[in-house]
Amino acid sequence: MNLKSIFFGKLLLCGGFLLTLASCEPAEAEYVIGVSQCSQDEWRTQMNREIMRESLFFPGVEVKITSANDDSRKQIQDIDSLLKQGVDLLVVAPNEAESMTPIIEKAYRSGTPVVLVDRKTHSSRYTAYIGADNREIGRGIGNYIQQRLGGKGNIVELTGLTGSTPATERHQGMMEELAKSPGIEVLATASAGWREADAERAFDSILTRQPHIDMVIAQNDRMALGAYEAAKKRNRHKDILFVGVDALSGAVNLVREGVLDASFIYPTAGDSLLQLAMHILRGEPYQKENILSTALVNSENARVMQMQTKHIETLDRKIEYLDQQLDTFLMRYSSQRILLWACLLILLLAGMLLVILVRAFWTKKRLNEELSAQKTKLEDQRDQLIALSHQVEEATRAKLAFFTNVSHDIRTPLTLISAPVEQLLKSRNLDEQEHFLVNIIHKNVTVLLRLANQIMDFRKYENGKLTLNLSRFQLGTAMAEWADSFKALSYRKHIHFLCRFASEEQTEVVADAEKLERILYNLLSNAFKFTPENGTVTVEQVFFEKEGKRWFRLTVTDDGVGMSAEHVQHIFDRFYQIGVHPGGSGIGLALVKAFVELHHGQIQVDSDSGKGTRFCIEIPTEQEGEVHSLDTLPRNTLNFKEGAILQAEQHSLVAAHAEVTGKEKTVLVIDDDQDIRAYVSSFLKKDYNVLEAANGQEGLQLAMKYVPDAVVCDVMMPVMDGMECCRRLKQELQTCHIPVMMLTAYDMAEQKIKGYQCGADSYIAKPFSAELLQVRLSNLIENRKRLKDFFAEGALPLTDTTEGHDLDQGFVEKLRTLIARNLHRADFTVEELGEKVGLSRVQLYRKTKSLCGYPPNELLRMARLKKAASLLASTEKTISEVAFEVGFNSPSYFAKCYREYFGENPTDFLKRKNQSDQ
Ligand code: FRU
User: Fold this and answer.
1) Bigger pLDDT: 279 or 752?
2) pTM for the full predicted model
3) Is any atom of ligand 1 closer than 6 Å to the C-beta of 671?
4) So what's the pLDDT on residue 86?
């Protein structure tokens, strides 16, 4: 797990922690109390405020209040809704008794405690009731009427909503009391539905009908005020006393002001109501009927009442203010707590970040230290490499200096050999063989001279002493002339040689003609060297413009063996050779590149293994410097030209040469150097048929075809080297018995071991003497013959041997078994035998002939006859029986063959046998 994921993991954890803390507020309500009010007025507003205020003292209590606006149907819906919300207790002030009874009973039956307040229903199915005794209030009113009017007078009654219990009970109480005073006449009773406006309207109507009214009894103060307004409009308000119920602070003021004559306290008691509800909810004891007391407020006590009411109101406001303050503090507390946790979280995160940063810092520091240690190590290694490369450079320089010195030293003797050899070649006294040998000397001296000169030139270039000898000449003509020298070689090697030179009239250039000529020779020599018979070598030269200058481009293309990309990279490195192929000293192309660079040009090579090579040179036509006349410049290109051609010719890729001249033994010579082949052939030809091949692959093909008696094979060759060729020869059944003599230019123990590992039978190092090679070769063939003779001994000429190749032994063993198993069959043929050992008839013939000295049919016949002799000697079988048993169809033919092989008739043998037995 990385630092990042740990960090985010911890961040999530902290976030979760903070959320948990935040979710602590607000707490889930413990109880929910639903209050369904029938009306919306001052009295109810006061009651609701008292309820809410009281609820503050009961944390965990939530109060939901609805108001039906004097509409019973709405109140039924309100109650339903509260019940659905799952209130724990329902408080109802029923608008009307009749219509509200069913819903209240339903709520009660459902198990929700129902507290009735102020008004009642027709049913006793409720949990508790709290409110004043309205009948008692009615009686108080009746009593007050009697006293105030002195037992005589006219009154008008304005009732609340018909059907609501306070209206009914207050009326009944009043009438009960008035029954005692016959002088009091109730002129009219009108319902005003507890509303001021309705009362004003109703009383106005009554006023029109009643001229003498002493007192109006309104069942609440609002309706009393409505009646007062109606009377005032008719200016009769001073004649009439107005009495109401409720005695809220406003009404007390009206009493003081004399608008109302009196009012009866109808307590709201919202606080008591909530306390009662809590008793019920908590399962504490409570009373079902909680009757609140009432009192008369008139001019005598209105002032005191007003003072008290005001004081209470002030206290209420303070409580409310405190409540608000508390809310504010709670809010502040809550937000501060969140802030605190947020700060803690941030601190925690910052801490974690710090830890991560510190760790990252230390890790980085450690890595930096490791890196710098590694850097120091690498720098040390680089310094070592630089020192090493300096050493290598120095060694190479020393080597090159040595080569140069040696080249310089051998040039004079070589020249001294070359001149007499040339004279010898011109001599007419030489026979053919002598001429041939002198020619080889001449060719190789020329090649050596060229090599020595090239090494010296390259050394000069490396020392910065190689300069351009400039002259002005026609490049097209010169190129054609130089390339012409390779025409003869192309005919000899059967290579298509295409020359395309600039045909413009003006092909003049200023350059070092000698160096250009040597560039061309080197490239052509290279192309011819690696192009097989029927291949194509193309040389092309064109002019072109580049960066405002005239340039010429020379391309030499061949479709020969080509090179791999890896070789192409190093082809211009001095002394670089491809693989083990001694295609040259590796100096030629390095020198070409040096000459091109001296001319401020570029050289490029494209090559594809197996498809050919293309060298491309681009050189500006005008070189800067002193321009001499071409004729005055020393030119020594003859040796280079000849050397290049000879070198290309020597390493001909196609030289398979098979000439079987009727000698008994055949020797295959495999070497890529034509002169070596020619030289070896020249002295082997006397005793052997000589086959020639230029590489391992061709050699292998010839060996398979001709099954020679010995192979003389060079180690380093193109296409397939000598080691591989030898290994393959020893793997093939047809050729595994052929003795192989390896030839190499290096007399190294390691190479010898490798050669023997490949199955080579002998090893001879170059330079070798012809005599030594001949002696060793003849010994090899002789040994093989002895082995063959040895095989030919015994019952069948095939026995175990301590000498010879494993594969040969296996072959002989197989042959022996097959013949032994089948010699009883007259139809067992040589073809079948060949098939069973996996060789063609001809291959089987050559193999058995070479290995055992007899053709296969002869071997089969011999095996039959030897078996027959053994049967005749060891059994009592007749000649005919024996003849048939060893696969002869005719006993007379058997007898003839037997006589030829053993020198006596089988019958004579039997006679001899019988005589000796007796
Ligand atoms: C308030 C009120 C009071 C009256 C009571 C009777 O809604 O009208 O004025 O005394 O209801 O229930």
Assistant:
1) 279
2) 0.43
3) no
4) 93
Other beta carbons less than 10 A from residue 354's beta carbon: 10
Q: Cα of 43 to ligand 1 centre, how many Å? A: 7
CA distances to 120, 445, 600 from 98, in Å: 10, 146, 125
Q: Which atom of ligand 1 is nearest to the CA of 41?
A: 7
762 lines ligand 1 (CB under 6 A): no
CA angle, 639 as apex, 633 and 641 as ends, to 5°?
Answer: 90
The reported pLDDT for the residue numbered 416 is 79
* 75 and 110 part of one domain: yes
User: Quick one: DSSP state of residue 471?
Assistant: E
Q: Quick one: angle between helices 830-837 and 841-852, nearest 10?
A: 90
Summary mean pLDDT of the chain = 84
559 ligand 1 Cβ < 6 A: no
- Ligand 1 pocket member 41 (CB < 6 A): yes
Is residue 192 assigned to a domain?
no
As given in the structure block, the two tokens for residue 621 are: 């036509």
What the block records as the tokens of 477 is 């003509």
| Residue keyed to tokens 């390896």 | 742
Q: Would 562 be classed as within a structural domain?
A: yes
Considering the domain boundaries, does residue 274 fall inside one? no
**Contact in structure between 306 and 89 (CB atoms under 8 Å):** no
d(CA 64, CA 816): 120
- At 553 the three-state DSSP class reads strand
CA 157 vs CA 148, 192, 392: distances in Å: 16, 10, 136
* Biggest CA pair distance of the chain: 197
pLDDT of residue 790 exceeding 60, the answer is no
CATH of the domain at 58: 3.40.50.2300
Q: Is the CB of 264 under 6 A from ligand 1?
A: no
Q: How far is CA 140 from CA 143, 181, 441, 754, in A?
A: 5, 14, 165, 143
Atom number, ligand 1, closest to the C-alpha of residue 221: 9
Question: Which of 46, 65, 120, 246 is the pocket-test mutation for ligand 1 (most atoms within 8 Å of CB)?
Answer: 246
Instruction: Please report the DSSP string for 283-323 in residue order.
Output: T----SEEEEP--EEETTTHHHHHHHHHHHHHHHHHHHHHH
Model confidence pLDDT, tens digit, residues 570-625? 777 665 554 444 444 467 888 899 999 999 999 999 888 778 899 999 999 999 88
- Cα–Cα distance between 571 and 605 in angstroms, integer? 9
Residue 90 lies in domain: 31-129
The more confident residue out of 533 and 248 is 248
Confidence of residue 639 (pLDDT cuts 50, 70, 90): low
Total domains present in the chain: 4
Say whether pLDDT at 656 is over 50. Answer: no
Do residue 829 and residue 769 come from a single domain? Answer: no
User: Domain boundary residue among 101, 129, 157?
Assistant: 129
The half-sphere exposure of 607 on its side-chain side, counting CA atoms within 13 A, is 23
In a domain, 775, yes or no: yes
Mutate to test the pocket of ligand 1, among 35, 46, 67, 118 (most ligand atoms within 8 A of CB): 118
CA–CA distance, 324 with 47 (Å, rounded to integer): 19
How far apart CA 690 and CA 253 sit, in angstroms, is: 155
Q: Reply yes or no on whether the pLDDT at 650 is more than 70.
A: no
Q: Which residues contact 585 (CB under 8 A, 6 or more apart)?
A: 451, 454, 455, 575, 577
Contact of 217 with 155, CB cutoff 8 Å: yes
Atom index in ligand 1 nearest the CA of residue 165 equals 12
Cα 248 to ligand 1 centre (Å) = 11
Cis omega (within 30 of 0) on the bond before 113?
A: no
Reply yes or no on whether the pLDDT at 228 is more than 60. yes
35, 43, 191, 225: residue to mutate for ligand 1 pocket, most atoms within 8 A of CB: 43
Ligand 1 within 6 A of CB of 220 = yes
Residue nearest to atom 3 of ligand 1 (CA): 220
